[in-house]
Design brief:
Elements (H helix, E strand, L loop, with lengths): L13 E6 L4 E2 L5 E2 L6 H12 L3 E6 L11 E4 L3 H12 L4 E4 L6 E3 L18 E3 L3 H8 L4 E8 L3 H11 L4 E6 L11 E2 L2 E4 L4 E3 L3 E2 H20 L1
The structure holds cytidine-5'-triphosphate and calcium ion.
The site of cytidine-5'-triphosphate has 14 residues, from helix 3 and strand 9.
C-alpha cells in the first residue's frame, strides 16, 4: 500500500538508509560476508518513501529488487559504505543504519587468486571503521538510528551502543530467536530511545516493523520540533 499520511513530518526530509551485508575481499575469488539479507533495510526504505521521505538507499550486495522512487547507491565493502554514507550525511535529516557492516576485513587483499597449499591458511583481519560511531561524532541535527544484532544480553548491549555511538534510537533484536533477525520475513525488535524510553514490539513481518519504526521516527522528529 502506498500512502502518505497528511501530517507526516518525514515529508520532503532526506532519509539515508543503509542495508544488507558488506563484502570484504580476500582475493579475486573469495570474500568474507555475513548473513544479512537486506530485507529489513529495504522494507524501511519503502516505508520511508511511502511517508513522503526523499530516500537514498546505500546497499551492500543483496538479491533484492531496487525499490521504486528512491536513489540507490550500491556498495561492496565497509569502506565503500562509509564513503557513500559520508557523502550523503551533511544535508541528511535522518540516517538509519540497518546494514550489517563487517567489523573486520583481511589486512592484505591479494591481487591474484591464492592457490591452495598443504596445511592451514591463516588470514589476518583488521578492524573496519565504525560508520555509525563516526556519524555520532560528526552529527549536528541529523537523527541517527542504529540497529543492534545480538545473540544474548540484548538490553545491556543495546543501551551500550545507544551511548557509545551517540545514536537517537537503537533497534535491537536477538538473532537467535525464532522468526527474528537475519534472512527471515519477520522480526521482533525492541526500540531503545536516547531519552530512556524502551518500546518492545511484537513479532511482525519486516514490512510491519518498518512501518512502525518509520512512524516512531516521524514522531520523534515532531517532538524535536516542539
Ligand atoms: N555499524 C557501523 N559500522 C560498523 C559496524 C557496525 O555503522 N563497522 C553499525 C550497524 O550498521 C548497526 C550498529 O552499528 O546500526 C550496530 O551494529 P552491531 O554489529 O550490532 O554492533 P557493533 O558496534 O559492530 O558491535 P558488535 O558487533 O561487537 O556487537
Ligand atoms: Ca558488528
Amino acid at each position: 500500500v502506498h500512502f502518505t499520511p497528511p501530517s507526516s513530518s518525514l515529508a520532503g526530509k532526506k532519509i539515508v538508509i543503509t542495508a544488507g551485508p558488506t563484502q570484504e575481499t580476500i582475493d579475486p575469488i573469495r570474500f568474507f560476508t555475513n548473513r544479512s539479507s537486506g530485507k529489513m533495510g529495504y522494507a524501511l526504505t519503502k516505508a520511508a518513501r511511502d511517508f513522503g521521505g526523499n530516500v537514498t538507499l546505500i546497499s551492500g550486495p543483496t538479491s533484492l529488487e531496487k525499490p521504486d522512487g528512491v536513489s540507490v547507491v550500491n556498495v561492496k565493502s565497509a569502506q565503500d559504505m562509509y564513503e557513500a554514507v559520508l557523502a550523503e550525511f551533511s544535508d541528511a535529516d535522518v540516517v538509519i543504519k540497518t546494514a550489517a557492516v563487517a567489523d573486520y576485513r583481511p589486512r592484505v587483499v591479494h591481487e591474484q587468486k591464492v592457490k591452495k597449499k598443504d596445511g592451514d591458511w591463516v588470514i589476518e583481519l583488521e578492524r573496519t571503521v565504525d560508520i555509525l560511531k563516526t556519524l555520532g561524532e560528526k552529527k549536528e541535527s541529523q537523527f541517527l538510528v542504529g540497529f543492534a544484532a545480538e545473540s544474548q544480553e540484548v538490553e545491556t548491549y543495546a543501551q551500550k551502543k545507544l551511548k557509545e555511538k551517540n545514536a537517537d534510537m537503537i533497534v535491537a533484536n536477538n538473532v537467535t530467536e525464532e522468526g527474528a533477525g537475519f534472512q527471515t520475513d519477520t522480526n521482533r525488535v525492541t526500540v531503545y530511545f536516547k531519552q530512556g524510553d524502551v518500546k518492545p514490539l511484537p513479532l511482525m513481518t519486516k514490512d510491519e516493523v518498518a512501518h512502525r519504526l518509520i512512524m516512531m521516527i516521524s514522531e520523534q522528529l515532531e517532538k524535536g520540533r516542539e
